[in-house]
Give the backbone structure.
Amino acid sequence: MTTADIGLIGLAVMGENLVLNMESRGFTVAVYNRTTSKVQEFIDGRAQGKSIIGCFSPEEIVRNLKRPRRIMIMVKAGAPVDAVIDQFAPLLEPGDILIDGGNSHFPDTNRRTKALAEKGLLYIGTGVSGGEEGALLGPSIMPGGNPEAWPAVKKIFQSIAAKTDKGEPCCDWVGRDGAGHFVKMIHNGIEYGDMQMICETYDFMKRGLGLTTDEMHKTFAAWQEGDLNSYLIEITRDILGYKDEQGRVVVEDILDAAGQKGTGKWTVTAALDSGQPLTLISEAVFARCLSALKSERVAAEAVIEGPKPRKLNRDRLLKDLQGALYAAKIVSYAQGYQLMRAVSEENKWDLNYGGIALMWRGGCIIRSVFLGRIKKAFDKNPNLTNLLLDPFFVKAVKKAQKGWRNVVAAAAQAGIPMPAISSALAYFDGYRTARLPANLLQAQRDYFGAHTYERTDKPRGEFFHTNWTGRGGNTSSSAYVV
């Protein structure tokens, strides 16, 4: 009987396309879906004539796999993943491997890796980015979990992954436990930020500079040839140039209420838990929340008055806008990498930051030439604490800074919201400032709650309390961090 190199459970769009990708690279794949009619449809359709084995029960797919058995789970994150694990774990033997390729929350992957290790089973939680097309032709793959499993899946994963211009696979081992899903979560958070900044740029072009859709299409096409070259700029160019059968620009007929699936929120929550200033991605998540309040915004526009429309210097500000988008993008990645470093240290993952940039160079949604610069920065200095301190990015932000400020100021005066791009500027100004007004904040906390403070003329770690009113005495609150 023919045995399969790997099994896959869950034949939705991503699952089907990953199967076809694996088969096209010379691997035999066994497939199973809870709704078994889906298996038959796939075998009779896209999988017909290929080295793909349709299975109609968990026991059948397990029988059809070479040892150690490798089973990839492509179902909705959360309880469905646990349900599949509970169903298959009793059928497997020590050394067999379960792989979760969905968008699972990394604490769940931490838990599952440990629980399955106690049963002698190996677990991988891997981020897969690139959407439908990436899954079929070559995604970015970010595996983590039990390191003993990596040698058994490395050839398959690196064969099906996207490749850089130099032929390097956009896939490598990330780290233990939930490291792979964590890095995918950061990818998705940065994706939220990139998309929001592009949308703010589009809005400023349209309402602030009065560009037509065709002019915006041509502008993004020009930007795609320069430093901003990326998949998201590319598709924005294509979207702005797309017209229906009647010649109408489709994007202008789409309702301005954004959806989200939760990975952006997880990224922001992780930043709060780690005390990291992930301001840009947070604003991108909240911008989607605000967009969802469509009916409230329509009602508010009728009663709340903002600035009157004014004529802006179109040519100068369009050039400034390009620089502002690039500078804010640098801040977004700087914040994302700060969060990665903090959580990596908490979990002792020892992430390879340059390697992560390489994994994102191809196949994934945030792929761009910009990531090559990040890889170089970390290859040169693996202990780089913030991208804003790398000489290349110092120079890039210096060049864009004046125009960045011009755009944020012009948008504020025109009443055009730029939550992500303006928050990036605020973070930049805060990060480059040696003394912030938090001294007053600490005094306020000590005044109303006796929370204590440190002094500039004393060593760090010594805490003091002032009896501000003369009625508070010398008792102070214990120090703790929430």
